[in-house]
Design brief:
heterodimer; A: alpha/beta; Amidase signature (AS) enzymes; eleven-stranded mixed β-sheet; 15 helices; 38% helix; globular
Chain lengths: 485, 92
Amino acid sequence: MTMQHKTAHELHSLLSAKKLSSLELTEAVLSRIDRTEPKVQAYVTLTKESAIKQAKAADERLKNNDNVTPLTGVPVAVKDNMCTQGVLTTCSSKILANYLPPYDATVVEKLRAAGAVIIGKTNLDEFAMGSSTENSGLHPTCNPWDTKKVPGGSSGGSAAAVAADECILALGSDTGGSIRQPAAFCGVVGLKPTYGRVSRFGLVAFASSLDQIGPLTKDVRDAALLLNYLAGHDPKDSTSVDYPVPDYQQALINDVKKMRIGYIKELLGKGVTRPVRSAVEKAMKKYQELGAELIELSLPSFEYAVATYYLIAPAEASSNLARYDGVKFGRRSNRSPDLLTMYYNTRAEGFGSEVKRRIMLGTYALSAGYYDAYYLKALKVRTLIKNDFDRAFSKCDVLLSPTAPTTAFGLGEKTADPLSMYLSDIATIPVNLAGLPAISVPCGLDKGLPIGLQLIGRAFAEETILRAAYAYEQNTDWHKQKPKL
Amino acid sequence: MKIDVDHVAKLARLGLGPEEKKLFGQQLSAILEYAEVLQKLDTDKVAPTSHAIPMSNVLREDKVSPCDNVDDILANGPEQEEHMFRVPRILE
């Protein structure tokens, strides 16, 4: 096995034993990128020079045993909606194509402090709005398992980069499934932490009551390891919660005896393809063999989750994206004779179709005369969805479902019908509405395409889902499967 | 369902071409029709959730701190003049 195929915890052992230098590892990842990136196109910006510099600095730290962390010297990819000082942060949008942030996002600052090597910025659906990365205003990304398929989205670039071994770890953001669904489609691990667990300072806002940053990795241990460095309160993000951060690696115990796992009836019925259902049922059987107690649970409000989400998220987006007006950053239209025309033309030229569609939808849902019928109604249904989760968690410790109802679909297959694209998030959206943590782990392959298993926990119970995911992973081989690129 | 696309686009300060107006008109109608399922639910006695985690005002000390990257911030503006962002004329 080549070194870029390894996990961060494997590489950390080699790095700290001086059997490998960060420079060698970083160069191996960069040359892997040279070979596979023309097919995958996971990145929008590569930071080769600064990566080499960071690798050399990490080697100094390793040599002197100075403040070495499990991330020191490990190449990480960052989704391009997180600010990196002096490095383009485009959100894969034409409107931000030249944006050079004057500061680092808190998560990026934390990566740097831990000695990680930032290898580049990954592609996404423009402003993280989408489920396939096809809405990128720059270029599409291909699924490393089959380059005619989408990698999922919106963190499609990060998921594809991890799957293609074009990085060791990656950061994604998840508003309605944008970490978990691409993780499922690309056969990697993706964790969306509890709302408030990770600072979003420097994450370009999409839907502020839903957005959360989390890891995309090659196995569950790496997800725990990376979360250790992301989690925690940040005075710069007033929605981050001041709640103790455990060592998530301590949660990795290969034992689920007596754990009560509830499987969600509504997410194993119609709308879920047979291969996905059968893979998830096999995972349920595996948990039973391992001594967990399986319980069928019904969450009837799930039927309403997609409609609820597609009113709330666009409403928040329409407000958040009002800042792209051609004044303080981003592009301004050349046709700007007066202020109002400048707004109209700047936004018309800078935004892609999906972003415009959601701004329109959100503006409509918030507009006078429709606010109560759409936005307020959706907020009330959100309460019902949250209540359903509360009821379910009075009977179980972890909820289980497929991450996505299908495997990766074809490039171009769903772009003409936005609603069919929205429905691919049916299993992930309720989790964001309730602010809960959830993880996707590989649980099967169908016609050479990965299938993801979703495990959902109570608020701030990342340890429980990590333990359940780890036990599953230790007793199966799906996470060891690699695409042939 | 019929949506006044021109009105919504104006509220959103979004310039749309005739093709886009037609397309968005159709697509938004389809999405809102789908969202009609919510009307089936009786939510009269349900309180709205705007945040998943209960949160009240988060305040910090009102203290001035230095901002030493003004030039980098200004450099992102499409047009600047004398340490300010420049915009087209607003008043005649």
